[in-house]
Amino acid sequence: MTAEPQAAAPPRQALNPLLKFTLELGPVLLFFVVYRLFDIFAATAAMMVAVVVTLLVSYTMLKRIPVMPLVTAVIVLIFGSLTLLLHDRTIIKLKVTVLYLLFSGALFYGLIFDKPLLKIVFDGALHVTKDGWRKLTWRWGFFFLGLALLNEVVWRTQSEDFWVTFKTYGVTPLTILFAIAQTPLILRHDAKGAPEEDAF
Prior knowledge:
By secondary structure, the protein is mainly alpha-helical. It has 9 helices and no strands. Helix 1 runs antiparallel to helix 7 and helix 4 packs antiparallel against helix 6.
């Protein structure tokens, strides 16, 4: 008696790209607006509420919470709470550094142990070969490391107003431009038609 072939697992549901971008950018923009109206402590509280709302929206629509927004939310809530409890504006600035170092370290850890962690970060948005994921992981790992170092330089050498503007209107465009710059590599390593053993 031959075993019946198992049905293929249904593809993971993903958020609409525009909604995904809005959910990712929303807390940052809200932080900027509330900071301009009040101060960094009110902005921190607003961002904490916003990241929780984004998680609820993601769970409502996907019945799961993507890993990257979850990690971001946890870091925001931890450092945001410390900022408010200790009334120390430095802590929320360090949050950005810690978050990017965490992303960078996790990606490099994945490279060492041959785990496609970047694939989890993109949550099904990209389909490239194993070699493609490896090269992208190196690039994103160093990019996040660079953002962490850049954040340290900015908040330690510039005014708070400048840092908030940089966090809102500097990091996001840099990330978008870096992502666009990876297009040629992604196209060269498109997983369509690749040998099965060459894809995760």
